[in-house]
Amino acid sequence: MLAEDDTTSICPKADSLTIVGPYHDMNLSTRFPNIHTLTVLTIETLDLHKFRRLRHLITDNMGLLPHLTPRIHTLTLINKNGIYLSPIIYSYVHHLTISKFFVNNPNTITSIQRYFPNLHSLDIQFVSNPTIFRDSLDILFDARQWPDFKLLRTNWVDEDFYHYHLIKIWLSDNTELKSRSDDFYAHCDGQSLTVWL
After folding, report:
1. Through-space distance between the first and last CA atoms of the chain, rounded to whole angstroms
2. Total domains, the chain
3. Which range, 25-29, 110-114, 142-146, 165-169, is most confident?
4. Any domain includes 189
5. Could you read off the pLDDT of 127-186 as tens digits, one per residue?
6. Is 5 part of any domain?
7. What's the Rg (C-alpha) of the chain?
8. Is residue 93 included in any domain, yes or no?
């Protein structure tokens, strides 16, 4: 941890950095040249291009999204007020986590597919509505829309199903996974659901 008045120290061994306050004139990308994971919890914008080793951005600032660089392949959005994506396609983002936000409409999933066409994994939560949950799973598991999609982590919503050891059968019967020829693995403990395709 640096002192508040330290604006010149260089930390080449630091691989993660969290910014929670003003950082004007601190030249962070030069001071932290090997940052792989950057957490930005402030409303200020930041020139992400200067962080040459940055691969994972964690932020609650949706205003940073238009500034993503192709090097960033993992994105974690923290937002309880909704996801507001700019009309930019983030084809280089392969892993997306959305926390503190609950999907309440399958159209949200459609938007995520549109803006993140090459997503490999998604960690997302749904409102407690079995219909929205099933409809969203159908969209997520449609191989034509996301051919590279391999991993889903989410909460379990369907309260009418209690045989969690049979979750693979339930998914095959109730979602687009029935149309896939490849085998998949699923795990459900009654609170969370993980599906590997």
Report:
1. 41
2. 1
3. 110-114
4. no
5. 999 999 999 999 999 888 888 999 999 998 876 776 777 899 989 988 999 888 888 999
6. no
7. 19
8. yes
Element spanning 78, H or E: strand 74-78
151 CB burial (10 A radius; 0-12, 13-18, 19+): middle
CA 195 from chain center: how many Å? 15
In the numeric block, the tokens 């085998």 are attached to 183
Q: Which two tokens stand for residue 181?
A: 């020829």
CATH of the domain at 136: 3.80.10.10
**CA-based angle 20:24:57, to the nearest 5?**
45
Cβ(151)–Cβ(124) below 8 Å? no
Task: Give the tokens for residue 143.
Answer: 């191989």
Q: Which token pair is 16?
A: 């993660």
Q: How far is CA 61 from CA 83, 142, 172, in A?
A: 10, 30, 37
Amino acid at 88: I
Residue-range definition of the domain harbouring residue 72: 16-155
Contact of 160 with 167, CB cutoff 8 Å? no
Residue with tokens 């892993």: 95
Question: Is 51 a domain residue?
Answer: yes
User: Which of helix, strand or coil describes residue 144?
Assistant: coil
